[in-house]
Known about the structure:
This protein has 514 residues and is mainly alpha-helical.
Amino acid sequence: MDNLGLLVDGFGAVLTPQNLLFAAIGVFLGTFVGVLPGIGPAMAVALLLPVTYGLDPIPAFIMFAGIYYGGMYGGSTTAILLNTPGESASVMTALEGNLMAKAGRASQALATAAIGSFIAGTIGTLLVVFFAPALASVANELGAPSYFALMVLAMVMVTSVLGGSWLRGFVSLFLGLTIGLVGLDLNTGQTRLSFDQPLLAERIDVVVVAVAIFALGEAFWVAAHLRRSPLHVIPVGQPWMSGADLRRSWGPWLRGTAYGFPFGALPAGGAEIPTFLSYVTEKKLAGRRGQDEFGRGAIEGVAGPEAANNASAAGTFVPLLALGLPVTATSAVMLAALQGYGIQPGPTLMTDQPELVWALLASLLIGNALLLVLNLPLAPVWAKLLRIPRPQLYAGILFFATLGAYASNLQAFDLLLLLVLGLLGLMMRRFALPVLPLILGVILGPLMEFRLREAMAISGGDVAALWSEPLAVVIYVIVALVVITPIVVRSVRPAPAAVAEDLDTSVDDEEKVR
């Protein structure tokens, strides 16, 4: 109740016409910049950070909140409409969201993303309000073995569930892990896979990899087949969500929120793992119900990951405010913004500057609500991007993708990397390699290496340290079940060809008897 009273005080400081105007401007600018291909929420917040210069802390915070949520929604918009995720956490949204758009249900995909973002963001922010101290202490107690096990679980589940071939999935994952190894070894200082190129001494930016594999790979693939298929306008469909869409979405919204917030609250958790797990869960549940539309545009595959993404985004404020620890690129930019106002997040922040903390949390709730109010009616407008003819559309994608990749480090060398990785994305489409395991390997590979070395250093090189924590043991049991269960099922259940052969044999025997 004390926290609720402090939150009400925060609303009292924030709810003024001027601050609401700043929040609306932040949402609009964040969505406008975030919707550009190749520019995710982190880059949107970074690019728009100078807009808040000269403002007092509270107006600046409420504009931050609007930019933050607007940029996240913009990233999901490009994922749905253009199959170009603005950030790694929107990768799962692109899988089913783009298929929905191509099937004429772009508005429904955008609407379920907006509503799911609002529900998950609101619940997540309220959980930060009431449980931040407890969650921060729990998250701080988890060790390197548990983090390493979580990443192994995410890789195995995602690689095994996508596509019809485990081999192709693990080949793609291997490519991603290899790209993630490029750069300096943080322990020895030796360069790895740099080919004597000094500009490769630093790790390849994830933004460059994601933009190249998705945006350039898709553009090259479309260009290679443009003359083989006639140009046509993809139907947008009716706006808003039907009753059936709402009934299919509310469960994934809540399950995605339950996945996202705990992972966001974990230091080094991030939004990638919960969005992957949410997608896998919804696919499994749909298969059990016999209503599996995954691979053809399932609305559950958009609702769940988007809710997980936004709940995780809210959860990142737990380690950011309580520990001063940014766990995502976007929260790192937010930390820089807070420090610019002389605010140093940490364990004493809520007692030293409670007015600013509760004003920030109230700003997040208001920015999240304005995101729904402004962008839900605009869903058909964003969906009309699909009406742009493909040559002009993909020319624009290439322009903004190149701009986004260059803006990440301001290095012309990144443009060469973009081209090389874009050709890799084209070849992956040519040989039917799933792109998601590659992106997952690039993101989680360095984190896995860091946690593995941390665990080994603490234990003096004892491999048993990797299963020295109860949570790690539980996760490895789950990994074993995920790997072994399909093998057992295939060995018990006869193959379709064998069944057909048995049926043919039985028919022949009956004819002989006759």
